[in-house]
Amino acid sequence: MKRWLLLVLAGLFALLPGIGNATGISPDGLRLVAVLDEMHVEQFWIAGEHVNWQTGMPNGKPETVEGKHTHCSAFAAAVALRLGVYILRPPEHNQKLLANAQYDWLADQGAADGWNELTNGEQAQGDANRGALVVAVYRNHHDNKPGHIAIVRPSEKSARVIAEEGPQVTQAGGTNYTSASLVQGFANHPAAWSHNEVRYFAHAVDWQRVEPAH
């Protein structure tokens, strides 16, 4: 095939979503969207309830300590479990202040379990769009106060929008969002964004082993 025709085909190929286009969503990215949607995070992992970390269902146990009792880290662990990926979770660590512990674990031990730290939100969005499990995580500077963690959700937002508001996320927290910007999702920790303290970690997903979303 002539060189000019190869170049034309390469250019057209690059326009296909999820292949050469940094903002496109690949087939595996669409599978990730389906899994996140079927978790129904806005109905489960509700703040103030004592919940089963895997399902987000209230388990009837009373809360005995003060606090908002949000479940961002339990939801992140549940998504990872659904995708066949390990992230620090019960029983290795209880749900109290788990997001801070997940931050430390990802930074110190995550690489040994297949996690790779990413440079910025644009790279995080791109990896999620290709079907990787990507988390955005912030550690509170006070050890006795909660941090926050969210799942980066595939989205076709542009690099400019990502720079303004961060990648798109699905999360539990003070407010649960099926889809929100990182700035919106981390609103209870505004310094996390303004001080550039959110870190991103990605793990490949073996989609052949993940049961399809219903």
**Major sheet characteristics:** 6 strands, antiparallel
Series of H and E elements: HHHHEHEEHEEHHE
Helix proportion of residues, in percent? 25-40%
Tell me which CATH architecture applies here.
Alpha-Beta Complex
Mean pLDDT: 88
Query: Which overall shape is indicated by the principal axes computed on the Cα atoms?
Result: globular
Q: With helices defined by DSSP (H or I, 4 residues minimum), what is the helix count?
A: 8
The name of the CATH topology is endopeptidase fold (from Nostoc punctiforme)
Would you report the number of β strands? 6
Nearest-angstrom radius of gyration?
18 Å
**Order of strands in the sheet with most strands:** 1-6-2-3-4-5
Range of strand content: 5-15%
Total count of domains: 1
- What structural class should be given to the helix and strand makeup? alpha+beta
Describe the structure in your own words.
The radius of gyration is 18 Å and the shape is globular. The protein has one domain: endopeptidase domain like (from Nostoc punctiforme) (endopeptidase fold (from Nostoc punctiforme)), CATH 3.90.1720.10. With 214 residues, it is an alpha+beta fold. Strand 4 and strand 5 form a beta hairpin.
